[in-house]
Amino acid sequence: MTELKPTGPKRKKKSDYQNVTGYLFISPFLLGFFLLTLYPILYSLYLSFTDYDLMSEPNWIGLDNYVRMFTGDETFWQSFKVTLMYAGVAVPFRLIFALLVALALNKVVEMTGLYRTLLYLPSVVGGSIAVSIMWRQLFGNDGAFNSILALLGIPTHSWLGDPKTAIWTLIVLYGWQFGSSMLIFLAGLRNIPKTYYEASSVDGASPIKQFFIITLPLLTPVILFNMIMQIIQGFMAFTPSFVVTNGGPVNSTLLYVLYMYRRAFEYFDMGYASSMAWFMLIIIAVLTGLIFKTSKHWVHYESDSK
Question: What's the rounded Cα separation, in Å, for the pair 246 and 242?
Fold first, then answer.
């Protein structure tokens, strides 16, 4: 005779309670992601196909925003050109400067923690409104920079009032905030085995040759990471252009995000601003994809040689 099993409610397994506990712990992140990140992203995609002035209901207009953006808005192309120039110069400038500082700091034996902290400070405060105001004062007509030039007998210049030089003041400000990139480069340098340098020294390799045959190839994964992160930051730059120059003179420093901000919150054209945001997202995604595609030709991983 077969034994009858009880037909009562099944006892939940311990793993089921653990799963519920896990979901409860990550629920703040999930709620924040879906409500504060994913939903606004998808909603902005919808708004990019509408005429929305922040006061009334969005009105569906299809691709009109994109057509107007590409064919009827010269300021859009000016801001895009300025941003390409800004990112194309400022990003390599910051990366090269950060790498040089990291190489110098890698040789320091004493008080390295203090030096790292001091060199990282510009990255902590560099994006603040206060620093941008300070930068505007430094390069103003009566600022410290012109005062130093006057003391040296060198003619002063309206750095922020000249369309040819205004963008360069923002590029210098971007390069000055090199701390985060420098720390990542420094971590990569510390991970390179010293035995490589010792062996090459025995073979008679100079420090310059060691840099090109050892340091640079082994540092390419770090360079790839820093490059992608800085390109994204370069295209998203807003505060310097808004505070230091306010996009002027004659739109010579009108960065893309500043113009997008104006369309959204000064002209109340949120639909058009949303289309600009999605165009920038596509541009950054394409550039990132191209960098990853070409990285197999110049990025060296230790696993490749095994």
Answer: 4
For residues 49 and 65, the answer to whether their CB atoms sit within 8 Å is yes
Q: What is the mean pLDDT of the chain?
A: 88
Contact 241, 254 (CB under 8 A): yes
58-106 pLDDT tens trace: 999 999 999 999 998 999 999 999 999 999 999 999 999 999 999 988 8
Number of residues that this document lists for the chain: 306
Q: Residue 257's Cα: distance from chain center in Å?
A: 13
Please state, in angstroms and as integers, the Cα–Cα distance from residue 165 to each residue in 88, 159, 227, 252, following that order: 16, 6, 25, 9
**Residues in Cβ contact with 105 at an 8 Å cutoff, skipping those fewer than 6 apart:** 112, 115, 116, 119, 182, 186
pTM of the model: 0.86
Reported as type and span, the H/E element at residue 115 is: helix 112-125
Which residues are CB-contacts of 234 (< 8 A; sequence separation ≥ 6)? 83, 86, 87, 90, 91, 174
Kindly state the helix (H) or strand (E) to which residue 42 belongs, with its residue range.
helix 39-47
Interhelix angle 179-190/216-235, rounded to 10 degrees, is 160
Closest CA to 179 of 134, 141, 122: 122
For residues 244 and 136, the answer to whether their CB atoms sit within 8 Å is yes
96-154 pLDDT per residue, tens: 999 999 998 888 767 777 877 788 777 777 667 888 888 898 998 888 889 998 898 88
Chain segment 245-262, per-residue pLDDT in tens? 999 899 999 999 999 999
Confirm if 60 and 264 have CB atoms less than 8 A apart: no
Distance of CA 263 to the CA centre of its chain: 22
Rounded alpha-carbon distances, angstroms, from residue 43 to 33, 47, 69:
14, 6, 19
- Take residue 66 and report the two structure tokens written for it: 């994109």
Whether the per-residue pLDDT at 17 is higher than 70: the answer is no
